[in-house]
Amino acid sequence: MARDRKPSRHRSRLIAASVAALTLGGTALAEIPASAAGRPKGHDVSSHQKNVDWQGSKAKGARFVYVKATESHTYRNPYFDQQYNGSRNAGLIRGAYHFALPNRSSGQAQAAHFVRNGGGWRPDGWTLPPALDIEYNPYGKHKCYGLTKARMVGWIRSFSDEVRRLTGRRPVIYTTTHWWNTCTGASRAFAADHALWAARYNSADAGTLPAGWRLWTFWQYDNGGSLPGDQNLFNGSTTQLRKFARGH
User: Active-site residues: which are they?
Assistant: First the structure.
């Protein structure tokens, strides 16, 4: 997921972790994967995208967006209001995501910060459930943030429990298969009640999913394209996307 603090993005870590590439056989990946027919297209943004032209995004086919709200327990995206409210005003279904830094503070503390600063949810059909972006550490050499597998699972559970307590929804979990299986010990503890947002840059499909999940709900398939930020698909119809947003 997009990072706000530096001009360069840490997507290269995701690409390496997923054993994906931005070219296939020397040819740039198609913007829309072959398996995407009929699936709603969306994107995710952070402060990198600044003030987004939301009518332009909708005209290019976007139907949903995730907006970065917070990171750790202190940071809030300074463009969040324009991005979150602007996308809704343009007619997009939108949600907020939190970039986790599990070595900085507890899952409960980061969840509370997230919900206070945009990570809420309402069953209005326009608000996606809050999302947790948990992936390789962009600020240090410890890809699992120095946590044991058991402590990482506990951190994620603490974050999830607090989000559910405050909003009524379990968070969507954004991750890569390699990070999840490496840093949680291939935990299957979340698949039953957490939607998966799989990150894998590929023109064909989302590939092998993290342990426990059999289906992806969102798939981030590229870090650039016609829409600002990263390119995503929803695994269903537009009607199903609205039902998912409502919590049904």
Answer: 44, 133, 135
